[in-house]
Amino acid sequence: MTPPPELLDAWNLRPQAELGGRLNRHWQVWNGQESAVLRRWQGSEAQVTYELNVLKLIADTGLNLPFLRCGPQVLDGVCWSLHDVVPGDPAPREDAHARGRWLAELHERWRELPLPAARPNWRGALEVLADAGADALLDAHEAARPADVRLYRWHLHRARRAVAELRPGPRPRRVIHGDFTPWNLRVQGGVWTGLLDFEFARPADPLEDFALAWRGVHDDVVRSYAAHTPLTGEALALLTPLWWAHLLGGALHHLERGVRDDGWTARKLLVRSPLMGELAAPYPG
């Protein structure tokens, strides 16, 4: 799909290049004499409003952000908006140590922000693990997808047991980014200066920010974070159950809607790290 000509005319835009996107689609455009980014939203109106409100909430926290220029505007049932370009290059993928330090810095920057409402249609990681409906859903799909369901059920039960044995106390809630990955960071001269993609931003336990930053494999993210902001034994023990809960939440959502991914969820559930402790035991199949 290309941007509608009437929108380009109304906002004085000239397309430069398609930038892609996992769910939302993006184009680099000229807005008069300035470069900007045009977004085609995938989510509901509530999701659009939520994400734009998050951008307002974090506006004064010292980062370059994709601030809103025009919109949002709905044309033929599709929502569009125009945003500032966030300068810089993606963070080096191989430098997990820097990302861990920057994640700690982000949590420090956002520590005192007022908490927004819960993100629409989003469940916290511990809610995913505690949901009794997950078992019924897995049972209902086991005949059609036995290998996937066995994998999901095994990790679900292991994560539940780990949390039950840990008996965590009340956990803090902060605004988190939710997708602190190299391609969503912007770096200039080795300095982290900008942040993109707020599709997963929400109030949550800050440990949930490790899900896509650590992914069960980038251990230096955790070590570097802990060198800046110490992690308790309880926090370290929760990392794996929360990571698996993130994966299982998506897997259960897909099962409910009859959707199959490309095997990404299964591959990530099978990843093991020394930081997982007893949960690093291999899946027996």
UniProtKB/TrEMBL annotation:
InterPro entries xrefs: Aminoglycoside_PTrfase (IPR002575), Kinase-like_dom_sf (IPR011009)
Residue stretches making up the Aminoglycoside phosphotransferase domain: 20-220
Cleaved signal peptide residues: none
Highest taxon, organism lineage: Bacteria
Record-given protein name: Aminoglycoside phosphotransferase domain-containing protein
